Amino acid sequence: MESVRERITIRDKDQFEIKYTYPLQLDQEYTEYVVETFIFLPANLQINSKTYEKEKFYRDSTAYIRFKTPAFMLPDIVSGEDSPLEKTRDAILRLIEDRMNPSIVENYDYRFRMFCSILKSALRDEIERIGNIREPDHRNSEATLMTDSLAALHEKFHLLRDITGFNTLDHDKKTLFNFSDEYIGIISEYYLFKLLEMLDGGRQAGLPENEELRRKIIEEIRVGNAYRFSAGYPTIVRENSTNETFIYRMRMLKKIMGSILYIRTQNIDDGKWAEKFAINVAAGLAMAIATIVLLGAQAFRQDGLAWWVVLTAVVAYIIRERMKESSRSFFVDWVRSHYYDYKTILRDDLDRKIGESKSFMGFLKKSKVPEKIRAARDKDQISALLENGSDEEVIYAKKRIKIRNKNCQTIWSDFKVDGINDIVRYNMSHFMRVMSQPERHLFILDGDNWKTVEGTGVYHLNMILRYGMGEKSAIHKFRLIMNRNGIERIIEVPVKQ
Questions:
Q1: What is the pTM assigned to this prediction?
Q2: Which of 111, 278, 323, 352 is the most interior residue, by most CB within 10 Å?
Q3: Residues whose CB falls within 8 Å of the CB of residue 309, separated by 6 or more in sequence, listed in order
Q4: Distance from C-alpha of 321 to C-alpha of 249, rounded to nearest angstrom
Q5: Rounded to an integer, what distance in angstroms lies between the CA atom of residue 116 and that of residue 120?
Q6: What's CA 217's distance to the chain center, in Å?
Q7: CB–CB of 415/114 below 8 Å?
Q8: pLDDT in tens, 338-353
Q9: Closest Cα partner for 217 from 234, 197, 244, 233?
Q10: Per-residue pLDDT reduced to its tens digit, 207-264
């Protein structure tokens, strides 16, 4: 059985992103996963349940959920009767023949967006695969195949515009083609540059150079740039420029093409009705006790003394208010411990419910941290000594995902949905706000004299993820190295399972 996979990356100086992939268990009615996050914070950061409420946590964390992109090797996208490129060509021909049929119009839109999404995913996976090849000749041959495949793809895609009748299509249909064409050029150029970066990194590490391959990649980039310029696309990176237009259009096109994979969400406050009911029960209980006090006082009432009535009423009121607050706190805490903060309904484009997720956030006392998580936190000696000698606050976040497998299998007519991607972005600016200045002046000897040098101070925040399905779960530990200026890097710390 395939397990949950995660990929963690830094987005900018304030944010990092975790991308979870939940494989679907297609032989079962439902697929269910639980993801738990434990973030250990030094107490001097002043992040606790009083200064960092749930609302702030949810504002600082942004979640996106979408279908996993169908997996293709790059050469398979270009060639073959069932290749995504051939299916895109077929969608154009069908629209030219019957442009009033709603299902054919929808298929045209679907094919272009899916083609772009598949290509982007394939290029990302191809770069990662080639980067893991250590044998130079093998790596160079795979890099050459990637470059040649992209050149063939561009040539064949551009020829789609020459199909007889294409120019008679509506303006919005030709615009979608142009947007797709422009986006393909942008992402191809990006990953070709990543390929060059990889080759140059190998050269710096002493690996054999391959100037012919470098020239081939550079020429392909030049050809793509010239094509986008001649087509009137404004996405050309220029020196001595903010490149504002390029960045804006790149984001816009990515959103347009990637929308085919998005899952619609509807957030609901989970347990809100139970919390309101608990508040009413607390008020009723307090009123009942106050009434009992009033009735009991009647047995000791002295006739004709109005002050006795006033005194017992005041005492009953005080008791009611104190009981109301204490019982309300007790019942609300009980409800919150048994319910999640939010429930998110997941729906496809036809408004069918395909699943749901529930989210919870709170602070844990160190004694409540599970034993395996504490062991992972204190894996090295310095961590254990720090844990015993200082206080830490522990943020605990939990998410439960439940997917209806049958509904996911009918999303696309010819691509199998075999997984869900859950992307969570965390903004750490609240954590950085009270960090001390990172710049430090340090002393070193300079011959028989001394001098100062500059240093940079950082904080280490430990984050542990535990995820899985049912009894099977995996634990992964990461160390966020950061200071007031931002996130410096994130490293994974091996944990014995």
A1: 0.78
A2: 111
A3: 301
A4: 59
A5: 6
A6: 32
A7: yes
A8: 667 888 898 876 677 8
A9: 197
A10: 566 788 999 999 999 999 999 999 999 999 999 899 999 999 999 999 999 988 888 8
Range from 75-89, 169-183, 358-372, 415-429 that averages highest in pLDDT: 169-183
Q: Which is it for strands 353-364 and 392-404: parallel, antiparallel or unpaired?
A: antiparallel
> With left for phi above 0 and alpha for psi between -120 and 50, is residue 233 left, alpha or beta?
beta
- The single-letter code of the amino acid at 424 is V
Domain boundaries, the chain: 5-67+352-493, 74-260, 271-338
| Sign (positive or negative) of CA dihedral 427, 429, 434, 440 | positive
Whole-angstrom Cα distance, residue 133 to residue 416?
A: 29
Which tens digits make up the pLDDT trace of 49-74? 889 988 899 999 988 888 888 889 99
The torsion angle over the Cα atoms of residues 350, 351, 352 and 357, rounded to 10 degrees, is 130
**Which two structure tokens, joined as six digits, stand for 422?**
């859950």
- Find all residues with CB under 8 Å of 195, minimum gap 6, and list them: 127, 130, 143, 146, 147, 217
Q: How far apart are CA 363 and CA 336, in angstroms?
A: 12
Q: How far is CA 325 from CA 279, 328, 332, 419, in A?
A: 9, 5, 10, 47
Helix axes 211-230, 136-159, angle to 10 degrees: 20
- 237 Ramachandran zone, left/alpha/beta (phi>0; psi -120 to 50): beta
DSSP state of 303: T
Residue type, 468: G
Q: Which of 312, 318, 314, 289 is nearest to 300 (CA)?
A: 312
For residue 258, give every residue at least 6 positions away whose Cβ sits within 8 Å of its Cβ, in sequence order, or none.
66, 113, 117, 120
Residue 2 is classified by DSSP as: -
